[in-house]
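Protein record
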Amino acid sequence: MTVSQTESRLSPDEFRQRAVALETEVGQIIVGQQNLIRQTITTLIAGGNVLLEGVPGLAKTTLVRTLADVIDCPFSRIQFTPDLMPADITGTTLISEDSAGRKAFRFEPGPIFASIVLADEINRATPKTQSALLEAMQEHTVSVAKTIHKLPEPFFVLATQNPLEMEGTYPLPEAQLDRFFFKVLVPFPSTEELVEIAKRTTGSQTPQIRKVASGALISEMQRMARDVPIASHVQTYAARLISATHPEDKASPAVTKQYVRYGSSPRGMQAIILAGKIMALLDGRLNVAFADLRQAALPALRHRIVLNFEAQSEGMSTDNVIEQILETLKPE
């Protein structure tokens, strides 16, 4: 079956084969980073957006470009800078003139009108420009001059940011961070991976990749993932996990009460459950396990929890807090 011949209904085996094919093709360009690739593809299948954070030179942009190369759908790249304006992203209304001299308003779509959008160095843009992405990321629409324009489906924003840069950056507000399904930390490669990177990038041969999926196939995989059943007690565990991140909750653990200022929103629970469904399918199962939810907890919650001053002064990170919550919160 070619990428354009998407069946109306995928089987679980076909779902897994397609996802593995995506990982394999991306892995021909990106050395190592299996967790990074898996979590990015999980976000894509979930229909969400991903925030990639890492120091320069770790192939964040290359990962996004490679993903766009293996999926047959429109791709757009937006380089965020302090002088970027909202209309540079969403598009603008122009006055056009036809052959008869009649003038009319015409909407010229911006680069946001693509299925895969790379928002490169998103924290370099001003808050006004960052806010232009909020509606697109959540509702998959763009409002310009009182007119709502629908974005193509599937729609997927991959944003990158460098945690080390301080000058000329604008931290993303919590409302925008909450729109990201996953926040994925890009680790530095090992010595063996550095050697392999050198071989692939400094030699005369360039790895060749092929398109293994279409936009229609990704949309079908998204629908199938939502159909995976989850037991009531497993779903309750996800809700308990979110409640455990709120210091005002009576049942929250001591680490939350000591270090957390604000806990996760309900979107965190939605992300954990949906990611758990996809992880179950990728593992060849048709039911969500506690382990799936626990595996999804870090990337789904690390950007949705706000720590207090005491945590910052003691060098506690959100990952440290989430890991301690997971150790304390046992399935019932």
